[in-house]
Design brief:
Layout: H1 5-9, H2 48-59, E1 66-71, E2 80-90, E3 93-109, E4 114-126, H3 128-131, H4 136-150, E5 155-167, E6 179-190, H5 200-215, E7 237-238
Antiparallel strand pairs: 1-2, 2-3, 3-4, 3-7, 4-6, 5-6
């Protein structure tokens, strides 16, 4: 899966760090996981606040259509990093996928205004008619902020991009229908709670709410009838 380079690069303002890479993965059924490791996944040498934040991520239970697993964390963005990949699954097909990275710098980060930062990439395919909607980028960004607000989360310094891309096929590929994709890259600083630990479990749940919305799934629980999700795309990708 592509790195969320656009938003990860903004986390480099303080300079380069040689972070570690986590290993391990979870099974399906929406349980995040990962084995211990230096810096990357909350091992014994990680700061207590980071270790607690990672353990909270591992304990989250999500709706069954969302599969989450630990993956290699980006290097040099922060002294400590932990990364998850997720996919919204319908049978053997992925309706949407994404990546969420938790960064931690115990010394604090001027650009973050805090010691933690969450960085994400979410993407899904769209019907061409919806991709042509000029308001789509604003709507997609509001889905991200709305998912955080719906769970009562406080955050700061949000930034990101919403990108639409269209593919048209010619020659030997001309039989394929045109395809459109939406991609949300974003980062924000979660509010730190007791012991300097943010509520990473709630942030992960909010992020998965966004994934489900982009994939076109109905809300997991009764909600605002004004909330609109993307219709399921015409041809989900095979896994």
């Amino acid at each position: 899966m592509d790195d969320a380079k656009g938003t990860e690069e903004e986390a480099r303002h303080k300079g380069s760090h040689n972070g570690s890479n986590p290993s391990g993965a979870s099974g399906g059924n929406g349980t995040s996981g990962g084995n211990g490791g230096t810096g990357g996944s909350g091992g014994s040498t990680a700061p207590p606040a980071f270790a607690a934040a990672v353990e909270a991520l591992r304990a989250v239970r999500l709706r069954p259509q969302i599969e989450v697993e630990a993956t290699r964390a980006p290097q040099r963005l922060a002294p400590h990093a932990y990364a998850l990949e997720a996919a919204v699954v319908d049978g053997d097909e992925d309706l949407a996928d994404g990546r969420l990275v938790l960064l931690h710098d115990p010394a604090g980060h001027e650009a973050w205004h805090g010691t933690f930062r969450l960085v994400t990439l979410v993407r899904a395919e769209l019907e061409p008619e919806m991709a042509a909607d000029p308001l789509l980028p604003d709507v997609c960004w509001s889905w991200l902020t709305g998912a955080l607000q719906a769970r009562g989360l406080t955050y700061g310094e949000p930034s990101g991009t919403v990108t639409r891309a269209s593919s048209h096929y010619f020659g030997g590929l001309s039989a394929r229908p045109s395809a459109s994709q939406i991609e949300i890259r974003a980062s924000w600083t979660p509010r730190e709670g007791l012991g300097g630990v943010p509520d990473t479990a709630a942030h992960l749940s909010s992020w998965c709410d966004l994934l489900a919305q982009v994939a076109g799934l109905p809300p997991a629980a009764p909600g605002d009838a004004s909330v609109v999700t993307l219709p399921q795309r015409r041809g989900p990708q095979s896994r």
